[in-house]
Amino acid sequence: MAACDGERRAVPTSSDDTVILPLAIGNTWWGTSYVYNLADSTVDTSKVTIMVAADTIAAGIRWFDYSIYPPGPKTGRNWSCNRPDGLYRLARYFGDDLEPGLEVKFPARRGDIYLRGPDTVRVVSADSLLQVGGRAVRCQVHVCRTTEYGFTFIQYLSPGLGYVRMEATSPGDSSDQARVHFELDSALLL
Q1: Which of 38, 72, 73, 77 has its CA nearest to residue 55?
Q2: First and final CA of the chain: distance in angstroms?
Q3: CATH assignment of 28-188, among 2.40.360, 1.10.1660, 2.60.40, 3.40.50
């Protein structure tokens, strides 16, 4: 059952596990972001809030804006919607124009492969268990290596809850931040 009356729960469960990311204005996720250097030492830790703040209708489709606070250099408005084959996001995949693209295939099975813009994503698990907020959460694990920068992204998503853990690793010694890790602490699902 989702949290009710504005109650923040460590790890709520959603009554709608037919979507990978529950999109409703007011849904909020709180987590912690860790940045590691090449020696795998923590160089920064910060609290992160992800909130569905607005919606709009475009081409007859209802899109939801989930924004990340505090905003980083690559964050901003993320207009997304759930469709029968997964979570879609409006993005600039191949130029300056926003276009809808599959962000997360759902439902997904281990071994599924799909495109996220120019990048190939592999589903390496459909039923991994993670401990979050003192309870086991079943997650799908999606792995993507970006073609433009060579970063590897690993996303752990739980149906009806959304992003539980995310990790981005740089391709080598080209950056002071070799790895960024996000962990869900709690959520409010309306």
Answers
A1: 77
A2: 10
A3: 2.40.360
